[in-house]
């Protein structure tokens, strides 16, 4: 073998590795592109599925203040409770054991109606004893009266005989003294009869205390005792003695008590019209007016109590119900405001939410919800005046936290 051939064999062939390296780089790039494509497809699929899920919402239409029939403006809103002005826990006036209880919750009772009976054996015995004493006093009175009549006849005969010198003057004087003494005894016995009669009356009163009656007409709110339990007007005996048989409320005396922040009490005046909405019936608006502003404040809560009368009486209104009260402007101011309608549109207060520190509503654009920034204004009962959307714009009544700009929505039927 020649020297040139030997050198040719020992030379490194650089073309083959370069070709092999090129093939390896191309495969790595292809795999990376495939992974990216799968990632993009997964994100796109997730976004598509997320966007495909529609959020169910309720829709309302923004209306003009004049067309909403909102009436007077609400200058203040406060919460409170329905209370019965006339409410009493009925108890026996003496301590005793209940024989029967004749009431149930929800039952209507009339004034003087019997609610329960106590064991009255001792009271009946006392009455019988008092009546017997009264009869004995009357008999004694009759006896003294008869003796006095006889003594007066004796005095008349003695005076006749003293003129004829048949008896002494001393005998006549003794007879007269006896008449005076018996007359005083008769008067004393009459007083004893009065005492015995009063004892009878007292015993009858004690017996009557064994019957518990309704002090006024109303509805039984609570039944507090059962037959066999001891009731007492005093809280004696711990948990073994009841202080009441039941609680009665006069439903015709129902009113609302609200706590108004003392910073806004200057907006409330006597006879001011109000609009009350019960928490149990949010779509039912009850007209009313301010009865009185209690002239004292709660230093702990910094509130002033206001009594409100409701113009409508209804069985659905019961004590201790929660209520929201809107204090309205007087009719003169309301008419002046109606002469110049305010700018903006009316929307439910619940449709206004906060997003990034701004007040917004969600307008409906087909099957999408579009975020619209608004400027809230005056409150009209449960509606609010806003600027930023046009009249007739359909919006979401109560947006949830998951509702975002551009989200797909479905309107509830």
Give structural notes.
With 413 residues, the chain is of the alpha+beta class. The chain is 34% helix and 32% strand. It contains six helices and 25 strands. The protein has a six-stranded antiparallel beta barrel. Strands 1-25-21-20-19 form a five-stranded mixed beta sheet, with no helix packed on it. The longest helix has 43 residues, at 121-163. The model is unreliable at 16-22 (pLDDT under 50).
The biggest sheet, with number of strands, parallel, antiparallel or mixed sense and barrel status, is: 6 strands, antiparallel, barrel
Calculate Rg over CA atoms: 48 Å
Q: State the helical fraction.
A: 25-40%
Q: Output the number of helix runs.
A: 6
- The side-by-side strand order for the widest beta sheet comes to 3-13-16-15-14-17
Secondary-structure-derived class: alpha+beta
> Globular, elongated, flat, extended or rod-shaped: what is the shape?
elongated
Unreliable residue stretches: 16-22
Total strands: the figure is 25
The end-to-end span amounts to 99 Å
Q: Mean pLDDT across all residues, rounded?
A: 83
Report the sheet-strand fraction.
25-35%
């Amino acid at each position: 073998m020649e020297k040139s051939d030997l050198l040719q064999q020992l030379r490194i062939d650089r073309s083959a590795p370069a070709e092999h390296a090129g093939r390896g780089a191309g495969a790595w790039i292809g795999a990376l592109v495939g992974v990216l494509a799968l990632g993009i497809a997964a994100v796109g699929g997730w976004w598509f599925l997320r966007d495909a899920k529609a959020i169910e919402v309720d829709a309302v239409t923004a209306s003009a203040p004049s067309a909403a029939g909102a009436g007077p403006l609400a200058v203040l809103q406060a919460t409170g409770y329905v209370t019965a002005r006339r409410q009493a826990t009925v108890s026996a006036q003496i301590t005793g054991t209940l024989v029967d209880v004749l009431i149930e919750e929800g039952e209507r009772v009339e004034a003087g109606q019997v609610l329960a009976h106590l064991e009255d054996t001792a009271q009946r015995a006392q009455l019988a004893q008092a009546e017997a004493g009264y009869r004995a006093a009357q008999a004694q009175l009759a006896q003294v009266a008869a003796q006095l009549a006889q003594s007066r006849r004796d005095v008349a005969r003695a005076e006749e005989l003293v003129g004829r010198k048949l008896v002494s003057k001393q005998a006549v004087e003794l007879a007269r003294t006896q008449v005076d003494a018996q007359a005083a005894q008769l008067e004393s016995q009459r007083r004893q009869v009065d005492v015995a009669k009063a004892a009878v009356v007292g015993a009858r009163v004690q017996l009557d205390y064994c019957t518990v009656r309704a002090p006024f007409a109303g509805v039984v709110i609570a039944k507090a005792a059962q037959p066999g339990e001891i009731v007492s007007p005093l809280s004696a005996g711990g948990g073994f003695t009841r202080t009441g048989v039941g609680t009665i409320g006069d439903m015709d005396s129902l009113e609302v008590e609200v706590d108004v922040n003392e910073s806004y009490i200057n907006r409330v005046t006597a006879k001011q019209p109000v609009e009350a909405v019960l928490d149990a019936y949010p779509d039912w608006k009850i007209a009313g007016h301010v009865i009185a502003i209690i002239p004292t404040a709660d230093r702990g809560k910094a509130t002033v109590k206001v009594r409100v009368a409701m113009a409508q009486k209804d069985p659905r209104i019961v004590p201790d119900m929660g209520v929201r009260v809107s204090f309205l402007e007087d009719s003169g101011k309301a008419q002046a405001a109606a002469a110049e309608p305010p700018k903006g549109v009316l929307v439910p207060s619940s449709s206004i939410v906060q997003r990034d520190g701004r007040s917004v509503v969600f307008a409906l654009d087909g099957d999408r919800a579009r975020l619209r920034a608004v400027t809230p204004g005056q409150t009209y009962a449960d509606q609010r005046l806003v600027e930023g959307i046009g009249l007739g714009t359909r919006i979401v009544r109560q947006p949830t936290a998951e509702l975002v700009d551009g989200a797909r929505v479905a309107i509830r039927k």
